[in-house]
Specification:
Elements: H1 13-36, H2 44-54, E1 60-62, H3 63-70, H4 74-87, E2 90-94, E3 102-106, H5 108-128, H6 135-160
Antiparallel strand pairs: 1-3, 2-3
Helix pairs in contact: 1-5, 2-5, 3-4
Length: 168
């Protein structure tokens, strides 16, 4: 028995302007930030993984936790890790506690890479984004995207992990 699909809720002009402005700005910003890391032989994806690991105890995280934090599938993270292992920035370490998972561990070379890239990356973020916002803009954006992120996090886990893992 086929249920009749309801008519989509089309975006009104204000909603469309907000959506398109967000998409265009976010894509251009990420492209620019990626470009600004080229001199460090890092991509934004590499930088994000290294940043998460650098802020973690012992500079290591379970692969599943890192995938969730970075909002990427486990298979995409696994591919990224292969590239980063080849560069010598990370290594995988078996999880001795349960022998089912692996840790992503930042190497000394990975630490040096992020320490060298961080000043340029922060300057890029400041120049291309932060300095164009008022303090109120920054607070508003943080609230907005915290709300959107919390909604998407549960959807991402259920849709991309087949519902096999629930947010803890």
């Amino acid at each position: 028995m086929n249920a009749k699909k309801s008519e989509p809720r089309w975006l009104n002009p204000r909603e469309m302007k907000a959506w398109r402005s967000y998409i265009i700005a976010s894509r251009r910003l990420l492209e620019a930030l990626d470009f600004d890391l080229v001199g460090h032989d890092l991509s934004m994806a590499d930088y994000e993984v290294l940043a998460q690991l650098s802020e973690s105890p012992d500079r290591k995280l379970r692969m599943s936790e890192l995938a969730e934090i970075a909002m990427v599938s486990k298979s995409r993270l696994s591919h990224r890790m292969k590239v980063m292992e080849k560069a010598g920035w990370v290594r995988r370490e078996e999880c001795l506690e349960d022998k089912r998972g692996y840790y992503a561990v930042m190497t000394e070379k990975g630490w040096k890479a992020i320490v060298n890239a961080a000043p340029d990356h922060v300057a890029s973020v400041r120049n291309r984004f932060v300095d164009h916002l008022t303090s109120k803009d920054q607070e508003d954006l943080a609230k907005i995207f915290d709300r959107v992120t919390s909604q998407l996090r549960g959807q991402f886990i259920n849709e991309n992990l087949g519902g096999s893992e629930k947010k803890k």
